[in-house]
Input
Amino acid sequence: MINVLPIATTVLAALLSVEPLHLVGYAALTPAFTLMVTYHWTIYRPDLLPVLALFLIGTIQDLLSGGLPGVTAVTLLLARAIVLPHRHYFVDRRFPFIWAGFTLLTGGAMLFLWALHSMLAAELLDLRGPGLRAVLTIAVFPIASFLLGRSQRALIGAD
Amino acid sequence: MRILPARRAAIERISLSLLVVISALMIILGKADQVAFQSLRNSMMDAAAPALDMLSRPAAVLDTAVDRLRGFVTVYRDNVRLAEENERLLGWQQVALRLAAENAELRDLSKLVSEAAISFVTARVIADSGGAYARSVMVNAGRDNGVARGQAAMTGEGLVGRVGEVGSRAARILLITDLNSRVPVVVDGTRQRAILAGDNTARPSLRYADAGGTIRIGDRIVTSGQGGVFPPGLPVGVVVSVDTEGARVEPYAALSRVDYLRLVDYGLAEALPGPLSISARGGKRAEAGVGGPLPLRR
Output
């Protein structure tokens, strides 16, 4: 039962992404919560967050947010494809190392999204928004990582 | 069941590549054919509405609490200001009453056909677009509540956007700041027309303004009613900057923190054609739009 935790937290992250906070400018800068959760579980329990789940949750997030379906799914899948082969570098490392890895991943993901949307819009879009969003995502990651680590302990207890 | 690590890695690689390809195809299809995911979108919206509604309540409560606390601090100042404002408004009330009476008299004289009655639904924002590339919100009212595509979404201050997609109990509002939003507007009190075009920034720009006319900082922008989607005269915003690239408009409504919206039915919703499907392109319109005027946006 506890094994659904990675999927459940990813679904929660997707819902949190469309949660209106009524803060000025927040909607555009909402941290990429699903990216954080994907990164975390890809390092620690990739077996419990299969690619099909990532694809479905990413698509649901796009459908809910009114974005193009497939954009979030492809971002999360590529994130997994990049992190998975290197996960053994991260598993037993201290937090700053994990955080640095996430910083690189987020930078890459935001650039990828920017390039993709620029291509779809057939014009070079403003980079400041995605830049700020990357900063916010990286800044919020420690909190997400702490909470996910907590939930992970419950997993270890159950194994 | 034990799967060999090598086998598992192969399965992972194949399924991941396959899903990436499917996602890419979905992006292309969604971009080319706007109707492709419409029904999926609507049912997803309906399915998630109760959960989103519940999730958005704590934030709304917190927001109200913060506002109330802020209110306590400024209550004295507010009171003085409101008393003054009340004094002034009472004067205006007299003017308005006199004008209303005069207006009724003149209408009577000229036998003017009265405008269609308007009705509205008030709905709460339960989700936003959460990203840098779209500006829309989801509200907790849908077809069951009388919401229809093309209705104007307003706050007390002004136009927010229009209803883009409708499920049975939730609807998506395309904000006037969205990259795809185009609203025919006019500078209030003049005949200077333009199109208010969103570009995902907080301040949409005025495009295709009539040559020869001038737009100045401080000009009030209202809907022109052209295209028949919005009635004329809805307040939109005020011009805040003018440069060689055109003018930018600050919307009256605080778009990034709307909580409740009024979805107003001016009886014009029929005017909005449905989105074009691939098969309908090349001369023929999608079913919903047959006979409608030109689409306002792609």
Q: What stands out?
A: The two ends of chain B are 52 Å apart (CA to CA). Confidence is low (pLDDT under 50) at residues 279-298 of chain B.
